[in-house]
Amino acid sequence: MATGDDYRIDRRAVRRNNRRHASEAAGFDAIAREVAARMEERLDYIRLSPRRILDLGCGAGTDRERLQARYREADVLGVDSCAAVLGAGRRRGLLGRLLGGRAPATAADALALPFRPASFGMVWSNLMMQWLDDPAPAFAEIHRVLEVDGMVMFSSLGPDSLKELRRAFPETSVHRFIDMHDVGDALVRAGFGDPVMDMQMLTVTYASADKLLADLRGGGHANARADRPRGLLGTRAWQSRLTRLDQGRRDGVLPITLELVFGHAWKLPPRTDEHGRSVVRFHPPRP
To answer: How many domains is the chain built from?
Structure first.
């Protein structure tokens, strides 16, 4: 998997950006809600009745509401690396009334989840993986906390995302995103079976470059590359970049591409026991 310096993410910057805009992020989540709806459509074709669900990278909790409405008997827990975002979600009120206080949200690192092995029947993660240098360690943690026959379902962004910004700004000013096939390989290396990966293109239009950049900042999505430029650009350099971006305008609007990557996979029964001995399973013949 390509995870060189140009893919490296400053995770402290990610948390800082989210914390800075926690109170307003819900007003900039239209794309995340659209992606969540597309993820949920995929659940229509999957037979699964999890008792406990983990929403990894839950943000203010909108997806938890969606999952709780779908799996009414399940406990839906949330984890996010930014405590301030979780606090903003609790203050919304509806989430607390809907969940009835049964399933709290916890501030924790996706690479060190505070749960015992086999704690969940399903892990859901909407647009969180692209904030990691490498999804493999997160997949390993997800595999650990899933029950056997449990499922992970996730979304992320692929390499063509924000390509218009990348053309207008210096390379280190815009994130690079990992290819769908590399993400699928990481799933398999983490021990998952039957992975299904697919991709859809989404074009979002903006009235102006200023509106686009305000959307990115307001949602906590400012540049968090480890090799990002430090300091402020001069006025002339900044205007030059905005002019290049505006050259992509079509029919009076500025189109921005998002490559949406979707995946799900299953935690299969182990092939060996705790002593390293092969496990042989016998299944009765089908009638």
So the answer is: 1
